[in-house]
Design goal:
The complex is a heterodimer of chains A (119) and B (669). Chain A has one domain (24-116). Helices cover 50% and strands 0% of the residues of chain A. Chain A is built from five helices and no strands. In chain A, helix 4 packs across helix 5 (103-111). Chain A is globular. Chain B is α/β, with parallel strands linked by helices. Chain B has two domains: 31-162 and 179-326, no CATH class; 348-669, no CATH class. Helices cover 16% and strands 23% of the residues of chain B. In chain B, the strands form four sheets. Chain B has a 21-stranded parallel beta sheet that branches. A ten-stranded parallel beta sheet of chain B has the order 7-12-14-16-19-22-25-28-31-34. In chain B, strands 5-6 form a two-stranded antiparallel sheet. In chain B, strand 5 (167-169) and strand 6 (175-177) form a beta hairpin. Chain B is globular. Classes of the chains: A mainly alpha (119), B alpha/beta (669). At the A-B interface, helix 3, helix 4 and helix 5 of A face strand 6, helix 8 and helix 10 of B.
Amino acid sequence: MRHWCVLALLAALVLASCGSGSESEPRAAKPVGEELVGSVAQMAKCSDWNAGTRAQRLATIHDIRQQVNLKDSAVHTPELSDHAAYQVLHNMCGKDFAGSFRLYKLYARAASFAAFADN
Amino acid sequence: MSRLMVFVALIVGLALPAAAYAHLERPSYWPDPAPDTAVTPPAGGKVPALRSLESAVTGHGPGKVRVVCQGNGGSKSLSLLSASIDKARKHGYRLRPSQPKLRLTKWAAFRLLWQNVLLARRCAYSEIQPAVSASGNNDRVVVMPGVYTEPTSRAQPLNDPRCAGMTQEDSGGAKTPSYKYQVTCPNDQNLIHVQGRAVPDTPPPSPPLKNRQGIPDLGPCVRCNLQLEGTGVEPTDVIIDGASDYESNDPEARPHTFHKHVIVRADRADGFVAHNFTVRGALEHGLYIEETDGYRVDTVKMFWNADYGNLTFTSDHGLYTDCDGMGAGDAVLYPGGAPETGEQADKSFYPDAPRFNTTVRDCDMRGSVLAYSGSMGNAVRITHNNIYGNTAGISTDTISAAGHPGFPADSVQIDNNYIYSNNLELFKANAPVPPAVGILPVGVGIFWAGHNNGNVWGNWIWDNWRNAAFLLSIPNFLVTPEGNVNPGVSCEDPGLSTSCGNRFFWNHLGRVPKGFKAFPELYAFGNHVGATRGAAPNGVDFWWDEGGTGPTVGNCWFGNLGPDGTEASVTGPGVGDGNDVLPRTCIGSKSNGDPVKVQYLLSCFLAREGELPPEQCDWYTLPPKPGSLSAARKQRAFAKGAREFLETARAKQLEDRIGQLTGIPVPRP
């Protein structure tokens, strides 16, 4: 019985690491999409998103956010939270015509209404 | 919540990170608009003149001429030219599909052939990049007919390790290729790179300057006043090609494999002229002009570029004329981050302001997701163009507050254009043109997301099945945009500074102009086309969000004529909270916002898909043909949905949120 419990615990840990997606996971995962000068933000598409794991998708959101958040230039515009960005990209990329959509363009348009995103 | 608290929230908001934009580029600056007299003739300060092919042959005028050709002694190019001349002589030719055929006279044909024969004798290059690299100020690169794939450029690696240390990096770790990167690895991303100025010893300022007026790390001209031109009968005789696996040999055939991100990049290339060629098949952009003062894109075609046919960024004194583009996954033309030469001009830097910094005229923009786009595309004039067969026509926006200096977008003028039948359904599986941009309504002539002080007049806008024009505000709470925001914004409320002072007048709506003749390209990719003579109504002519979240001022619609030739047949502003009015007078025009329309926009911008309107986004499906029973049914369903929505707790929650953000309670009609 104890043996099965250990196995179940291990299985639960593996499953958790595959799917649930904590906010710290993206640090370890690679973002999806073609890389240009160290970033996928410019080229990542919905087809890349759809092929990625949750952790890779969150890493992609972080890459896009980092690219658009030019901290040195004192630029500050409302950002989408991980949750809100994930929802927007998930909903958009789930459409059967969205494979070629650039993710950053979706993020940009949604972020213009970020003040309402988490309501 | 008081206005004071809103401003406290605004200040707190400044600590928030973030942003959004339409393309990635190094921190960019507007060039000094004065001519650079260090070269003769001076570079910039005005749109450069087009030098004739005859002068390339005779050697009149400044600069050296370098000839690029194909075949031994240009034999292949001459053969291709001969075939093109024969075809033009027999059948005529069109520079743009919407225009009548042109004839090539016997004398003009002979002269063109003879000029090419003489040029072929001087041909020393089989690829364009080496000829450009060998050129200096005032020089010309003359390209004889052929398809130029630039194998040497194509073979250069992407993300070249040689240039890995030449990125500009912010404290958050975001990297972009610097000017030095582009100069040192010119064909990393670009098939052809035109380096206009030397790389100075001084590195670009880090952090970037708030004041974007003047390029801080500008070197002397090394390739200013360069003219790159084809020598064929028409632009498709010289194709600069970044792709392969074409569906046929037709110049407009779709490619399936792309090799380079940009076809031609002209960087700080003041006085640059592009003439009589085609850029085709980029992973991103066909012709890319960056930080340039004085440029002319004249009789150039742009086909099948996955993002933009032509992207111009932070550039001044520009002219696009007689151009034609299709197959763009975003827009055919995109003059983004255009200088603040409109209502927010700093007269100490732009003493001749207000003026247009860019003019787009006599172009066909078609068969793409958008005809025209431009985040922070300030003070551009769009005139006498044919805009048809796209998912949507013109879009200028204030969406991208970061990465694009010039917030908010203002002072664009759209006049005397034909904007029609933009009903191309690309939001479907296996679309004939893969869309790179979503969150955009199909069936719209003009989509203005947060523009100020715009003038839309004298246009014929017909047969756009959703709207002739769609004006919405971008709720720019908590925004600290790229670069300084100059005084002079049309809006009165600093928390809501977009979508004010726009005037729509003297337009003809829902009626085909006399003498218009349909042509095959109008129907390309299965575009939906209504009537091609007489009345051809738009869906709702002028859709307006009525300020959306709050008060916007100075927007007005007057003197427009509808399908029956009267003002009474003009429709707008679309169904909202029931208090839906399109102001006719500009002075005193002030909106109160509309929660129904805000909800409708949120359902699309935030991809929240409810079951019924206005919580259901219908942008990805072409509306029913205007005037049909289905169209009337859809409109009634929206009105019913709007009434029901206003009774829900969700509507109350939205109104409370708007009230929190604006400090103004949402009035109930």
